[in-house]
Amino acid sequence: MSTLSDIKIAVVGLGYVGLPLAVEFSKRFPVVGFDIKSSRINALREGRDVTLEVSDEELAQATGMQYTSNIADIADCNVFIATVPTPIDVYKRPDLSPLISASEAIGSVLKKGDIVIYESTVYPGATEEECVPVLERRSGLKFNVDFFAGYSPERINPGDKKHRVTDIKKVTSGSTPEIADKVDALYAEIITAGTYKASSIRVAEAAKVIENTQRDVNIALVNELSIIFNKMDIDTEEVLLAAGTKWNFLPFRPGLVGGHCIGVDPFYLTHKAAAIGYHPEIILAGRRLNDSMGSHVVAQLIKAMTRRQIHIPGARVLIMGLTFKENCPDLRNTKVTDIITELKDYGVNVDVYDPWVSKEEAQHEYGFLPIDAPQKGAYDAVVVAVAHKEFADMGAGALRELGKDSHVLYDLKYVFSGAESDLRL
């Protein structure tokens, strides 16, 4: 590959990150989108994106796109972009198996002169220490002689229709200075917000992983403040609004920290830190606090219900929202499940309502089936766990109608004013 005009791109992994990226690249280059899920490929061929990140109209206009689950169909590409998940396992250790599998697949079709770019969030060094050896072994080619690598971390924000892939500045990097220039020039073709060329792949990897680690620590601080203020009978939102009048106060809010990034990425950094002999203090403390917020929410709710003399075992509680954030169908690592599990431990009967989610996916991933619609006058407590626009549009009055004569309305997300709800985080 000598010039941008010679490029044919394969995007490996067509989820929340890969599909929007592939669609944008297809406006300038031939693109083949690869995913191991045949059901995903079939839906995209029919013009449907179940993640709702790309509209039907945008898919229809992406005439430069092909979709496949056959690895042989990407063999004639010369730029491979891996956009697969990088989750953690049950022990909160990085699970690189999707990334290794993607590297195996790419390595099977890798040719001399090809470039492999990774977008998945990893710890510093993972691309060259974990992925490149797989590419070498599988292809029989030599790194930085026969093929090259780049890293350009994803910055997709699921459900955000304002900050989309082209509107967010893109960090780029390459395994040699020349490749770094090529990778940067490639992304500059589609990223209207501009690019930032990092000095090395490791710098780009580190930059990505600290973006969400910083947010995690800041949210942990505000979560801890909310616990303190709750014990002092002070409304946290009112405190934050007052403090926010200072020009440099950061506008973080308390809440559940789930999803595929903020609740996961810090463990990649702490894993690498431990491997080099350093035990992180602040990062892990923030993680522990944020992971405990589900229990804190339930403790607050049970106390409020008890004060109203609501019998806890057998009580009915409605959880409004299951996704990890508002106005998107993404269920990955949602911490709403912590609330549900804890309530069930108290003997509470829990209904979950979320108009955004796939009920089948929820049952498959978490073992319970969301209801079609809540019942009026049926619940001892209503918990607004996710700030979906549908819930805001209903208004606090309509939510009150779902409760029994004596009930608790707990607004986790500050959808309503303090006067309209009984409890806020």
Please outline the helices and strands.
Layout lengths: L8 E4 L5 H8 L5 E4 L3 H8 L10 H6 L3 E4 L10 E4 L14 H11 L7 E4 L7 H14 L8 E4 L18 E3 L4 H12 L6 E3 L3 H31 L4 H8 L21 H11 L6 H10 L1 H15 L8 E5 L15 H10 L3 E5 L5 H8 L12 E6 L4 H12 L2 E9 L11 E2 L1
Parallel strand pairs: 1-2, 1-4, 2-3, 4-5, 5-6, 7-8, 9-10, 9-11, 11-12, 12-13
Helix pairs in contact: 4-5, 7-9, 7-10, 11-12
Describe what this molecule looks like in 3D.
The chain is an alpha/beta fold. The protein has 14 helices and 13 strands. It has helices at 18-25, 38-45, 56-61, 97-107, 126-139, 177-188, 201-231, 236-243, 265-275, 282-291, 293-307, 336-345, 359-366, 389-400; strands spanning 9-12, 31-34, 65-68, 79-82, 115-118, 148-151, 170-172, 195-197, 316-320, 349-353, 379-384, 403-411, 423-424. The chain has a six-stranded parallel β-sheet with strand order 3-2-1-4-5-6, sandwiched between helices. Strand 4 (79-82), helix 4 (97-107) and strand 5 form a beta-alpha-beta unit. Helix 4 (97-107) runs parallel beside helix 5. The protein is elongated, with a radius of gyration of 23 Å. It starts with 8 loop residues before the first strand and ends with a strand. The model has no long low-confidence stretch (mean pLDDT 95).
Shape: elongated
Helix and strand sequence: EHEHHEEHEHEEHEHHHHHEHEHEHEE
Euclidean distance between termini CA atoms: 55 Å
Overall pLDDT score: 95
Strand order of the largest sheet: 3-2-1-4-5-6
Q: What is the overall number of helices?
A: 14
Could you tell me the strand content as a percent range?
5-15%
Give me the count of strands. Answer: 13
Stretches where pLDDT falls below 50 for ≥5 residues? Answer: none
- Please summarize the sheet with the most strands: 6 strands, parallel
Helix coverage percent of residues? Answer: 25-40%
Using only C-alpha atoms, the radius of gyration works out to 23 Å
- State the secondary-structure class: alpha/beta
